Input
Amino acid sequence: MAAVITFKPSCPLVPLFQQSGTTSHVRAHPLACKTDRQRSPRATFSQGTPRVSKAKATSSSARKRVIVPQAVVSAVPSLTRPPDVLGATWRKELRRRVSESFPEGGLIYLEAGEQQSRNGTDGVSPFRQESNFLYMTGISEPDHACLLDTESGHLTVFAPTIEPSMIVWHGAIPSFEEIGNRYGAEACLPKNELAAVLRQHNPQVIYTLPGVSLPEGIDISFKMEDKKLQPAVALCRTVKIPEEVACLRYANHISGGGHEAIWEAAAGGSQWEYELEAAFVGHTLRHGLRHLGYPCIV
Output
């Protein structure tokens, strides 16, 4: 079996991870192996991993825990609980490092991704946060925005206003103050107050990402600069602080357990690909990892 990591060559038998460019959505790495698509006497794994005959797999004596190679066990860090993913404290350090690329001052404006409905219905598509916004704030919910003062480090989060009646569907709705405290922002305001905050700051320049502009109805007399922010964030993301490494190690650890779950499922008689995928996904969900780096390729 081979799993692929983004910054090292593929390594057989070692369960690795893919983080997909973010340090807050800790993502498990799906199994990179294949089984025979048709039911056959043997379920064959790629890259020379053990083959389990159907006869042996279905016998009661064969239904036992798969012995994982010691090399794999020693490669998986011993982690018992997820790290601080929201990073209300340590993401301030990330914002400080990004702000160093703008010694002349100014504001950084970032937008979260938008929740997309399916074909105009009340159903929604699976949401994945805009990576740069996630990196800077830790917020995984859609339809937010933020302003970062590059001189003071002051972060203002702008959250959508949710009607109280939506508590039936969303559960308890946090206040703006609670949102600010959760993500370590100095202020959290309704999105419709963005224009007033910009007029109060009256910045010389607003840095944003390519293709991002201020919402409609806001005075566009502010100077917008969309060339410097993307490379500045990308440069900072090449060097991980310890808290980011902890997120990566936890994702690696749970991914390894997911591979073991697949091996056990195969030894227990599971041969269809969807059964093995369910074993991996179920393991990651039980440990709080709700998103995979990419779809399973079992």
About this structure: The chain is about 30% helix and 10% strand. The first strand starts at residue 2 and ends at 5.
